[in-house]
Amino acid sequence: MTQNKDVEQGRIPRSLSPLAAANLLFFCLEFILAIQTRSASLFADSITFLEGASVSVLLSSGRNWSMPGREAFARFSRTIILIPICFLFWMIMANYQGAAIPFATPLAATGTAFLLTNTACLVMLKRGMFARLVGSLSDVRNHAIMNAVVVVAAFLTWASGTMWPDVLAALGILYVNESAAEHIWLASQESPPIDT
Questions:
Q1: d(CA 114, CA 129)
Q2: Running along the chain, 196 residues long, what does each successive block of 10 average in pLDDT?
Q3: Which end of the chain is more exposed for a tag (fewer CB within 10 A), N or C?
Q4: What are the phi and psi torsion angles at 79 (to 5°)?
Q5: Cβ contact 51:185 at 8 Å
């Protein structure tokens, strides 16, 4: 449920504000589920929602802010992204030291739920719904792939009885999300001022 910038034509979708709220809600939900399932991969995946929320704010209400204000929010958001990253490595160490593994069934259920959500968004975008958010097509597709990776990791965790499938999935998703901070900063720079 993330989105790309729609500033090339000077248009900012009005739906970005609720989209920011939705992304933040999903981030909080996935963060809590990551703790409950002891899953590092869910922490990594939650970064996508946090990025989406931050970019949405910058491209909606953030238009009212001065450039220093947008840059300050971008720096704050880039710092907040470190929270799920820190929890990711904390969970890996906790599972390793405690000889624990993620709970495969709720992990699979969570990954499947987010996969279905992103797939539904992908179908709506391909059918022309939310036309101004068409730039988010690749983002939603990539996030759906991450969700599928989480589901596969859950199955392999159940099959192997080890934490390593989840760890590998987490590191892979983290690698894909490495540009999240850059995307937020670019949004702060490209967000155009309100026309007078």
A1: 20
A2: 46 60 91 96 93 82 78 88 94 92 95 92 74 61 92 96 96 88 78 46
A3: C
A4: -70, -40
A5: no
